[in-house]
């Protein structure tokens, strides 16, 4: 019971543990893969705007696996991301359709306009 109460406030402890494991794996990558993965992880946290912890964990895990595989295979960074790292990151993030903070704001905006229209009549 106490664990459930804590998780309601802080989020899933299992997801937090998984996320920490993935970030430890990023820290273990050889350079330049480590620096690249960290840069993408940071960008995706800002760009993705995810509020769904499970989607964030899956996305981070996939990112780690991508760079781990590239390091093992000796694939260059540019072979992975091409010439436009922003396009790569945003295309990568679009594959993960979790709840985003902007969803709440979209709903709020739509409701505000509908309320304004009702008041205008």
Order of helices and strands: HHHHHHH
Count of helical segments? 7
> Helicity level, as a percent range?
over 70%
Mean pLDDT: 85
Termini, distance in Å? 51 Å
Structural class: mainly alpha
Count of individual beta strands: 0
Low-confidence stretches: none
| Largest sheet data | none
Roughly what fraction of the amino acids lie in strands? under 5%
- Rounded to the nearest angstrom, the radius of gyration is 19 Å
User: What form results from the Cα inertia axes?
Assistant: elongated
What brief labels describe this structure?
121 residues
Can you give a write-up of this model?
The chain has 121 residues and is mainly alpha-helical. The chain contains seven helices and no strands. Helix 3 runs antiparallel to helix 4. It starts with a helix and ends with a helix.
Short description:
This protein is an all-alpha fold and 121 residues long.
Tell me the layout of helices and strands.
Elements: H1 2-10, H2 13-27, H3 33-48, H4 53-73, H5 77-81, H6 85-94, H7 101-120
Helix pairs in contact: 2-4, 3-4, 3-6
């Amino acid at each position: 019971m106490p664990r459930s109460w804590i998780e309601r406030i802080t989020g899933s402890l299992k997801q937090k543990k998984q996320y920490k494991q993935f970030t430890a794996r990023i820290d273990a990558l050889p350079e330049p893969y480590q620096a690249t993965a960290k840069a993408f992880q940071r960008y995706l946290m800002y760009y993705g705007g995810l509020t769904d912890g499970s989607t964030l964990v899956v996305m981070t895990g996939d990112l780690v696996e991508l760079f781990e595989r590239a390091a093992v295979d000796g694939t260059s960074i540019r072979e992975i991301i091409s010439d436009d790292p922003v396009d790569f990151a945003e295309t990568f993030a679009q594959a993960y359709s979790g709840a985003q903070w902007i969803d709440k704001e979209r709903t709020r905006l739509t409701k505000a306009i509908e309320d304004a229209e009702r008041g205008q009549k």
